[in-house]
Every structure is written in structure tokens, then in C-alpha cells.
Amino acid sequence: MTELQRIVDALKRSGLNVEAVDDGDGALVRTDNARVALFAEHADEGGILVRLHLDLDLYVDEDALPEVLMGVNLMNQGLDYGSLVLDPVTDEDEEDDVAETLGDDEERVTFAVLGRSVLHLSDLSETEIARLATHLQRFEREIGDTVERTLHGHKSLRA
């Protein structure tokens, strides 16, 4: 059994809605408000690195990049459990969805806004799995709340 399988099983036992992804290299944690992708790998210094990715279904056109980068930088200053990143959209299906969302017929570079976090676990003990479950919930809540406040015009975050 891989570390990822052990993590998925332990998170399920703790009451979280978790399922392995078909290709076997990740898992999906479903909460009331979001889906967090989870990946696990051995850490060079020992233990396990758990990477969390939260797709926010937000896309940025390259024309808005300077303002968005400034806003993301300001939001990241207040985050404790993760960060916001801009990830270029490369999959053709996603590009079609993004073009529809942005109302765009031209080819432009588009970026997805993602939440990312990394947590180092020393082992897969109950204590470390509980720490991961808590971190997961805090990460999803913190990123979601920050983006929600910003999208609804929280003036203190305007650049």
C-alpha cells in the first residue's frame, strides 16, 4: 500500500470525503465548498510531503496580469496555510472552457488562479493524519474566504 493510499484511507476514517484519482497519483478531497487535489511523495529529508491544490475556477487574461499579480501578492501576505498562484492553462479542453468564460475568440495566454499548500508529515501516525486533516480544512477555508472577500470588493485589498 502506497503512502497516498494510506493517507486516503486514514482521512476517510477521520470523516472526510476522499477518493483516489483514476491515474493513482493523487486524490480528491471534497468539502462543502470545494474540491482539493492531494498528492503525496517521499521527502528527501525523510517523511512525506503532501501537496494540496485548490482549483478556484477563476481565470485571468494576460491583459489583466499586472493588476492581478499585484492583487495576488497582497492577498498572499495575509495567508498562513497556503498561497495563491497563477498557473498557465495548457489543456485544450480547458482553453475552450476559459475562452467561453472570458468571451474570447483570439488566442491569448490565460492563467488559472489556484490555491496551493505543502505540508511535511514526519510519518503517517494518527497524530500526523489529524494534523493533515486540520491543515486541509484551514487551507480550503482560508483560501476560499480570502478570494470571496476580494471578489466582493473588499477595499483594503485594492492595489
Task: Characterise the protein shown here.
The chain has helices spanning 3-13, 65-76, 92-102, 126-151, and strands spanning 17-20, 27-30, 35-42, 48-61, 83-88, 110-121. The longest helix has 26 residues, at 126-151. Strand 3 and strand 4 (48-61) form a beta hairpin. The mean pLDDT is 86. It is α+β, with helices and mostly antiparallel strands and 159 residues long. It starts with a helix and ends in an 8-residue tail after the last helix. It is 38% helix and 30% strand. The protein has a six-stranded antiparallel β-sheet. It has a single domain (3-152), classed as Yope Regulator, Chain: A, CATH 3.30.1460.10. The chain contains four helices and six strands, in the order H-E-E-E-E-H-E-H-E-H.
SS-derived structural category: alpha+beta
Could you state the order of secondary-structure elements as H and E? HEEEEHEHEH
User: Mean pLDDT, nearest integer?
Assistant: 86
- Main CATH class: Alpha Beta
DSSP helix count?
A: 4
CATH architecture annotation: 2-Layer Sandwich
Report the strand count. Answer: 6
Cα-based radius of gyration, to the nearest Å? 17 Å
Shape call: globular
Uncertain residue ranges: none
Strand content: 25-35%
**Proportion of residues in helical segments:** 25-40%
Strand order of the largest sheet: 1-2-3-4-6-5
Major β-sheet annotation: 6 strands, antiparallel
In whole angstroms, the N-to-C terminal distance is 48 Å
Number of domains: 1
From the 3D structure, determine the CATH topology: Yope Regulator, Chain: A
Protein name: Sensory transduction regulator
Organism: Deinococcus maricopensis (strain DSM 21211 / LMG 22137 / NRRL B-23946 / LB-34)
